[in-house]
Design brief:
Blueprint (H helix, E strand, L loop, with lengths): L10 E4 L9 H9 L11 E5 L5 E7 L4 E7 L16 E4 L1 H8 L9 H9 L1
Parallel strand pairs: 1-2
Antiparallel strand pairs: 1-5, 2-3, 3-4
Length: about 120
């Protein structure tokens, strides 16, 4: 779609809570402040509010910035931030996908599935 959030896209998450009053300008300035990052790279930058009820994502689509906002009516976005880490960190596509759907990743080994099916 317009967002082009395909699994091969690179996602980064801001490690500090961010005021959701920030618009595109404020968020792009934040991305510029991180060493080695450019908001115009085509990567997606993800930001969370302090209460983790709101998420904003920023992406350059070639001729302008797109900003996506999701506010949960109930519950909170699962914690993906590492405590005490101040900058930006790579966010895996699977984590982002599950985060957006409010799912928690569960590791299932093939062994267990086979055993379950064999009963």
């Amino acid at each position: 779609g317009m967002w082009g959030l395909e699994p091969d896209i690179r996602l980064w998450v801001c490690q500090r809570p961010v005021s959701m009053r920030y618009g595109i300008l404020g968020l792009t300035q934040m991305v510029w402040s991180w060493k080695g990052h450019s908001p115009a790279s085509g990567d997606v930058y993800v930001f969370f509010s302090k209460d983790r009820k709101t998420m904003k994502a920023l992406k350059w689509d070639g001729d302008g910035f797109l900003m996506y906002t999701k506010r949960l009516s109930r519950g909170r976005f699962r914690e993906v931030l590492k405590k005490g880490d101040d900058g930006v960190r790579r966010l895996q596509w699977d984590d982002f996908y599950m985060l957006m759907r409010g799912l928690t990743p569960v590791k299932v080994t093939v062994e267990n599935r086979f055993r379950m099916a064999a009963k």
